[in-house]
Amino acid sequence: AQSVAQPEDQVNVAEGNPLTVKCTYSVSGNPYLFWYVQYPNRGLQFLLKYITGDNLVKGSYGFEAEFNKSQTSFHLKKPSALVSDSALYFCAVRDLFYNQGGKLIFGQGTELSVKP
Amino acid sequence: KAGVTQTPRYLIKTRGQQVTLSCSPISGHRSVSWYQQTPGQGLQFLFEYFSETQRNKGNFPGRFSGRQFSNSRSEMNVSTLELGDSALYLCASSIRQGLAKNIQYFGAGTRLSVL
What percentage of chain A has pLDDT greater than the value 90? Predict the structure, then answer.
């Protein structure tokens, strides 16, 4: 069965410092990986995806993620954190059992807190 | 282009009642997926509709059902509500071709409280 794990419930970073939100995955075959962000009382906003190609994926709002097949990881990164980046971040993998299907399997989420 | 629209935003129901939630996808998106979000279970897949047909279904009881109309709008229904059904219900739409293929775009959700 495919799964995604976010080992940290919370990450605290000072504004201006680099941030990393960790994600590891377990899939059979090539993974389709995603990062989403959720602000309070809002839905999920798409940040970036990895399907194939370069291991470093650039996304919205200055975020990027590095796909590492040997470590089965897909960590989200940003060189310089902003207070406005404080939110709940979700890593997700598309369930490959459903061909072209719209089923995502989500990690439990990581609360990012950026302090001034 | 308008995003995914979910109505209503908030609902309060009592146990035993039923509820219907609505989702209008992004124009041109024909795939609609539904998710339940709770503090304890996180985000869980309910079902997906494409071309008015349910394509995938998650591990939820039969009280949870849905449908999709010819204009791709979707509704989900929960019958005989239980306290544990209190959650944020999220709808996402996607397309199956092009650069945006595989990306699900989410609505703001419907917050259901069961008393």
Answer: 78
